Amino acid sequence: MKVIVVGCGKMGSGLAQELVKKGHTVTVVGSTLDEFSMLGKAFKGETIVGVAFDKQILEQAGIERADAIVACTKSDETNALIGRISRNTYRVPRVISRLYDPRKAEIYRSLGIQTISTTEWGVRHAIELLSYDQLDIIAGLGSGGVEIVRVETTELLVGKKIVDVTVVGEFSVCALSRQNQTFLPTLGTELQRGDVVYFNVLVSSVKKFKHVLGLL
């Protein structure tokens, strides 16, 4: 996965290092060369100096080919702007912005931008959000601890019942689309090839969710 990290403070540098360790292609955009000192000499990703929301800089970082972008500068406004440009102009599949003011969280999510906060937790949360792989995150709910996720039925899921992919309090099916019809399934509904399933997923239960779906 190609990921652009904008901002290279504690969160940005920590996230970039973790992503590189996991084998992802990472480009870090910083406002000054000094920012990159936190990455360490062993960092194997790419670094670019420039104004974070400048389209020319974002294109130099490869935003047109990016699978995800994480905006974690010191400014909520800058992070929101980068998020909106990434989502609306370049259609980046996964857009995450750091948020210092939690009162703005709902506004961000209404724009299709996921949010993270605080350095240590933010790095872990961003890694979890970026590791959905075959999952398509539709929206975040509340404080961001719950995601609505869309999953195309895999061969391993064909024939399983909704109850087989439900763990009370952690993840459950909220809707199912089949042959252009969307409906609310019962626990006994069997999944068929070509189904698209919508789940409510607790972010902290992502690993268990992926294991149940056979995605690990």
Structure characterization notes:
- By secondary structure, the chain is α/β, with parallel strands linked by helices.
- It folds into two domains: 2-131, Rossmann fold, CATH 3.40.50; 146-212, Regulator of K+ conductance, C-terminal domain (Alpha-Beta Plaits), CATH 3.30.70.
- The protein contains six helices and eleven strands.
- It has helices at 10-21, 55-60, 76-89, 105-110, 119-130, 206-212, and strands spanning 2-6, 25-30, 46-49, 68-71, 94-98, 114-116, 136-141, 146-152, 171-178, 181-183, 196-202.
- It has a six-stranded parallel β-sheet with strand order 3-2-1-4-5-6, sandwiched between helices. A five-stranded antiparallel β-sheet has the order 7-8-11-9-10, with no helix packed on it.
- Helix 1 runs parallel beside helix 5.
- The chain is elongated, with a radius of gyration of 18 Å.
- The protein starts with a strand and ends with a helix.
- The mean pLDDT is 84.
SSE blueprint and pairings:
Blueprint: E1 2-6, H1 10-21, E2 25-30, E3 46-49, H2 55-60, E4 68-71, H3 76-89, E5 94-98, H4 105-110, E6 114-116, H5 119-130, E7 136-141, E8 146-152, E9 171-178, E10 181-183, E11 196-202, H6 206-212
Helix pairs in contact: 1-5
